[in-house]
């Protein structure tokens, strides 16, 4: 299994083979918005009321999540942000600030 660091390195190696390099953060944000829209469309097709047309290409939620992650990693790399550190800080925030926000599951399996 690849670590987040490995994924960031792989994206960096891929992008750096091209003269253009990374798009600007604003251009990548536009790309991310597009990818989130495509993810939304797939989720709506699978779980919502709007089913795919027979003429629409097959796509999957998994593929769209991968596309979103790729663009997020591009943004992080272009801004020199370590996503492992970013994620760790986010989880710390959720585990402290929001630790009592939601009702917890019972640890007792018989309940």
TrEMBL record:
Start and end residues of each NTP pyrophosphohydrolase MazG-like domain: 24-102
One Pfam family linked to the record: MazG
Database matches in InterPro entries: MazG-like_dom, MazG-related_YpjD, YpjD/YvdC
Coiled coil, from the record: none
Transmembrane segments: none
Protein name: Nucleotide pyrophosphohydrolase
Originating species: Staphylococcus marylandisciuri
């Amino acid at each position: 299994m690849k670590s987040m660091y490995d994924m960031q390195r792989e994206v960096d190696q891929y992008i750096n083979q091209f003269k253009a390099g990374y798009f600007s953060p604003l251009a990548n944000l536009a790309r991310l918005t597009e990818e989130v829209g495509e993810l939304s469309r797939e989720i709506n097709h699978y779980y919502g009321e709007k089913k795919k047309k027979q003429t629409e290409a097959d796509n999957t939620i998994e593929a769209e999540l991968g596309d979103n992650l790729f663009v997020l990693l591009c943004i992080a790399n272009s801004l020199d942000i370590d996503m492992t550190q970013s994620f760790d800080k986010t989880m710390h925030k959720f585990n402290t600030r929001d630790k009592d926000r939601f009702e917890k599951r019972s640890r007792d399996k018989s309940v």
